[in-house]
Request: fold
Amino acid sequence: MDTQFLVIGSGMAGLSCAIKLAEEGAQVAVVTKKYLADSNTNKAQGGIAAVLGSADSFDAHLEDTIRAGGGLCDQEAVRLLVERGPAAIKDLTDFGVRFSKNLEGDLDLGREGGHSHRRVAHAKDLTGAKIEQALIERVKSLKLISIFENHMAVELVSSRELGDQGKERIVGAYVMDTVSGKIEPFRATAVILATGGAGKVYLYTSNPDIASGDGVALAFRAGAQIANMEFFQFHPTCLYHPDAKSFLVSEAVRGEGARLKLADGTDFMKNYHELGSLAPRDVVARAIDMEMKKSGDDCVFLDTTMVDANLFPERFPAIHQACLRFGFDPTRQMIPVVPAAHYMCGGVHVDTGAQTSLPGLFAVGECAHTGVHGANRLASNSLLDAVVFAGFAAEAATKWGATQPLPGSGPPIPPWDPGGAVDADEQVVISHMWNEIRELMWNYVGIVRTDKRLARARRRMELIRHEIDEYYWDFVVTPDLLELRNLAECARLIIECAIARKESRGLHYNADHPKTDDEKFGKATIARRGPEGGYIFGG
Ligand code: SIN
Reply:
């Protein structure tokens, strides 16, 4: 398969980038490991932040983003992000996304934690699904885009592997058809990673099953720089019910007046932050964790009865329905909630053109570290990041492509070599290892960390990594094995970056180093692959 651009992933970032590239006349292949709509985007409830209200300003959005980011945001990237916000909303509206309006016919702007103004455009509580749907329709209408569903990237291919001794660049990827199991080379002028997050690295997560950190793992193995993996955001309010599979209760519900409470009705957030239940997410998640540890309770409660009972079903239809399904009427009773892993603030390190440290490789959306989220992402900035940087990536990739030989003219990528691999005797080992990783990450690398817990996690992961490596080389690869291998790579990166940061900041709280140390750690943690499975820290 030869194409100009290979986009891996089909959430908002990947599809937006593919659309922009195709609209410029480029030929694009989009590979996605399940179906097009299987993405984190599709589950986003809250909305997309942008300066849209008359009292709001770019400076205010910039300041809120930087304040939440705990001193690690890249100011230039944040400015670009917020200034492109209104145009991004307009583009999405032109694609057919119908954002909710108020009675005056203006956009109904929601409020979320850490925002000084109402600035969250939403389509009720189904914003992501509506955006995804509009983008899919547009992608399907563009003839220059070829879609490969049920296809998963196995490894990136570098020019070096093809015997080119010039400056190293990424020239494609091996891609598995997950139905037939066949692995084929896809050759491309540039590869754009848009694989989303890695929430499945934790036992409890708001993320869908596809969130196994594939892009970060692919880039890391190829030698790219990865940044800030220690900053994993836990969403404070996932519905607590054995069958709810971490159903998210949007922060927008708190924006409309809901308050976090203990079982006896105590409004505990007042003791932690002046913004109470609307404090930035790191503060809220840590406060809940502390209260649950103090009381021994399995959850805290969200008092949704404080939201206008007539408004709730209209403004939050999906949440309302889900709560009723699990036996809670949010207009009449408090609903039980717990924090769960939600968003990876780190990722493949990129510049403002979404270019990674490897020429020919770009990264967008949650799998990328653009510097806009710093040590803690401001709510609803992620969809904005996805669409804005997808545009920058399309521009930069187009420029890069113009300097490269035409697709199909370089040396061919050799066929995938399965070596002496045989069919695995026990597939169940994969789910055992997967569960082990998720439990150890939750127990030792969660909301509150210590040196001892991190060291324990590192030791256990070392063992698991060796077992996965053996499995990978001995047995025929399957999609489950590929996901496990990627997930393990992300888990190790999170652990190693957390060990390297001996301070507390934003989403990384280490009880043995509770203070922020700007002098030593006031910058991003940059890691790349070292010899023998080790790490090299620094630029
Ligand atoms: C939410 O709706 O609470 C999630 C929004 C986000 O994570 O930005």
In short: The longest helix spans residues 451-474. The chain is about 35% helix and 15% strand. The mean pLDDT is 95.
